[in-house]
């Protein structure tokens, strides 16, 4: 009887973690940073070599962001989760643009659609369209995909789903990688 009660309690706890997004996200924010840093991957010099056409900023190459902290996001106007996370990215950009470079790359999008999206929503985060192949190491398999890179090119955070980027955890990460 006691074993059944223990199993039932464990099933309820697991159900709460899996089914209630707030609990799942809280636990992820608490434990995600440690696992990410321990398994960090570095972006090489060759991986940074991507020609970028600026939509609301001048054209550049991703290699110009080497040796800097970078918030690198792959998204599309056609992607509902991408559109959903934009307000939090804009808030993060507004508060941390002096500390980290933001590079948002619109994928499978036309320049006019991206410009329209940015204008309609009053977004001013730097947006680009890749003009050369993107390394397999950072090429997204799902959208949105976001990387937070430290100054050495180490991937501190990789998120391949919607996320609220304007959280205390993300702010702390940025504050720690710019030191």
TrEMBL record:
<feature type="transmembrane region" description="Helical">
    <location>
        <begin position="6"/>
        <end position="23"/>
    </location>
</feature>
<keyword id="KW-0472">Membrane</keyword>
<keyword id="KW-1133">Transmembrane helix</keyword>
<keyword id="KW-0676">Redox-active center</keyword>
<dbReference type="GO" id="GO:0017004">
    <property type="term" value="P:cytochrome complex assembly"/>
</dbReference>
<dbReference type="InterPro" id="IPR036249">
    <property type="entry name" value="Thioredoxin-like_sf"/>
</dbReference>
<dbReference type="InterPro" id="IPR013740">
    <property type="entry name" value="Redoxin"/>
</dbReference>
<dbReference type="InterPro" id="IPR050553">
    <property type="entry name" value="Thioredoxin_ResA/DsbE_sf"/>
</dbReference>
<dbReference type="Pfam" id="PF08534">
    <property type="entry name" value="Redoxin"/>
</dbReference>
<dbReference type="InterPro" id="IPR013766">
    <property type="entry name" value="Thioredoxin_domain"/>
</dbReference>
<keyword id="KW-0812">Transmembrane</keyword>
<dbReference type="GO" id="GO:0030313">
    <property type="term" value="C:cell envelope"/>
</dbReference>
<dbReference type="InterPro" id="IPR017937">
    <property type="entry name" value="Thioredoxin_CS"/>
</dbReference>
<dbReference type="GO" id="GO:0016491">
    <property type="term" value="F:oxidoreductase activity"/>
</dbReference>
<feature type="domain" description="Thioredoxin">
    <location>
        <begin position="34"/>
        <end position="179"/>
    </location>
</feature>
<keyword id="KW-0201">Cytochrome c-type biogenesis</keyword>
<protein>
    <submittedName>
        <fullName>Alkyl hydroperoxide reductase</fullName>
    </submittedName>
</protein>
